[in-house]
Amino acid sequence: MKMSRTALLVIALPMSLVAQQPAPVGGPVTTVFRGRTMGLQRNIAQAFDSIPESKFNYKPTPAQLSVGYIAQHLSSDNYFFCNQFGEKKGAPSAEETSTADSIKAKWPKDKLVANLKASLTFCEEAFAQIDDSKLGEDVTMQFGNNPPRKTPRAQMVLGHALDLADHYSQIANYMRLNGMLPPSALPRPPRP
Q: Beta-carbon neighbour count of residue 59 at 10 Å?
């Protein structure tokens, strides 16, 4: 009889603790995307902060993008994707939208990083508008001069996460080629 009471306690106690945990805000899918995306955003911001300005023209081969080009490209992509997350809209400055990408890529590091961080902050605020029930809603997107088309909001959320992961991987490789450790490879502080 004691054994069955112990077994019941072993099963019931963890279940009661799980039941006391608050439900994820926005639902499980949105919560997972938000968590992963915010982690990538932190790594990207930290990576660009740690790369010296002298390396912002660096690119491994002539065919690849420079560090500065990636910074300005990410800023633009962030507005493209995150403007589809809800009613809240963000926009780069008039100077950013009227300047060619190849010119912006050569702006000083502090300007490029400030623009990138502003776009990341906007994306974090835009993410607060999403919950699982809104992921299936249609949004209108347009690439360049192509005609606008409808797509589920989930495609924009997934596209944003994949775009961040792709460019973080790219910049992490550039850092390693220059003898720097990317943020995700740095030792983690010990847990308290």
A: 17
Beta strands in the chain (DSSP E): 138-141, 149-152
Domain enclosing residue 134, as ranges: 32-182
Q: Taking the chain, what is the end-to-end CA distance rounded to the nearest angstrom?
A: 40
Work out how many domains the chain is built from and give that number.
1
Out of 8-17, 27-36, 174-183, pick the least confident.
8-17
168 CB-contact burial (10 Å; exposed 0-12 / middle 13-18 / buried 19+): buried
What radius of gyration do the chain's Cα atoms show? 21
CA of 90: how far to CAs of 81, 144, 188, in Å? 10, 18, 33
Q: What is the pLDDT of residues 76-104, one digit of tens each?
A: 999 999 999 999 999 999 999 999 999 99
d(CA 14, CA 19): 9
Q: Which helix (H) or strand (E) holds 111?
A: helix 109-127
pTM for the predicted model, two decimal places: 0.84
Determine contact, residues 184/43, Cβ cutoff 8 Å: yes
d(CA 30, CA 131): 6
Instruction: Tell me, yes or no, whether 6 lies in a domain.
Output: no
Q: CATH number of the domain that 63 lies in? A: 1.20.120.450
In a domain, 64, yes or no: yes
Residues pairing with 138 in the sheet: 152
Is the residue at 187 inside a domain?
A: no
Q: Is residue 13 part of a domain?
A: no
